[in-house]
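Notes continue from the previous slide.

Worked example: a multi-chain complex. Inputs as given:
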Amino acid sequence: MAQSKDFHIIAETGIHARPATLLVQAASKFVSDVTLSYQGKDVNLKSIMGVMSLGVGQGSDVTIKTEGEDEEAAMTAIVEAMSSEGLAK
Amino acid sequence: MPKTSVTVKQLVENTRLEIVSGKEYLEREITTSDISRPGLEMTGYFNYYAPERVQLLGITETSFSERMRHDELLMVYRRMACDTTPAFVVSTGLDISEELKQAAAEAHIPILTSSLTSSRILSNMTYYLGGQLAPRESVHGVLIDVHGLGVLLTGDAGIGKTEAALELIQQGKARLVADDRVDIYQQDEERLIGEPSEVLRNMMEIRGVGIIDVQQVYGAMSIRSHSTVSLNIHLSNARIGEKNFDRLGNDGDTLEISGVKIPKMVVPVTPGRNTASVIDAAALKNRTQNMGFDALTTLENRMTEEMEKNAALNGENA
């Protein structure tokens, strides 16, 4: 059973290069597939280039899906990274 | 470990001086990179004379000596020629007085000369002696010159530093400076120079193959006697995910050697990753960055534009 969660990006910079790195580093610690969806485009959250290609700015809505044996822990880590960086609600 | 001294012979060979007299005394030792210009001493003022320094005589000293009496001049030169004085150097191809020759011969001190000016000789000698007499630090790693940039490869024993260096040397992209042990000293405030130990010069150890003499096998193009140490690439066998590797290349990580900080990149070594190619790219990235090109800034600017575009679209939809 895959996990899915919506995030509203509140950070002024949006998901810029540095915050993207932090999300990717959080996701890379898990074996589950982690996907970020924005405006109908899905990218692998473990791939920094993919994340940066989207241009997710302040006020955007994104969906994150985790799927795999540690999907719950992966989602928890991403929620944690989003809030500790003040990226999203 | 600092070299404590350099012989006059080494100074002659490395700064292209000519020997006027005292060929048999070239084993005399130089222990300081400071050079003495004994101008005031010519007048008899010896309160601050530094006898252990190389004594450099130029136009000032020589022209003043022409006004001195024979016995006065001989006395002054005798006072200069101490037990610890390594050599006299006369610049600009100036004539060498009999008094200097006599005093130097009595004290077994060689006289050297050059057609260069005093300031040029002074700078050459200070540069050479400063480097040779600077304290050295031995570092475990491989130093290669990649496209003119001195790259110090570090990482645990057996991780493949030498093999990666070998591949770059075979491709003609790098030249070997030192394998396994790199002796590093500070040339000036922000420049480090690395060289091999005399015994290991040009040698490489490849596991399973043995020792190879890189110059013999790959030719003169494949080696360098020394190079700057400008970039540290640390090979790590940590798994991607276990360790946070620098993804954007903006961590600002550094390695400090003898008080000088150089940029450091930690690169994962995993099966299927060609370490040599990664080192090549890292060196070139560092070079282009030094030239003022930064891909990350370009990418960030594009991202900002994309965000603005997306925000405008969202505004229309709302």
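Summary box: The longest helix of chain B spans residues 295-317. Residues 6-133 of chain B form a domain with the Udp-n-acetylmuramoylalanyl-d-glutamate--2,6- Diaminopimelate Ligase; Chain: A, domain 1 fold (CATH 3.40.1390.20).
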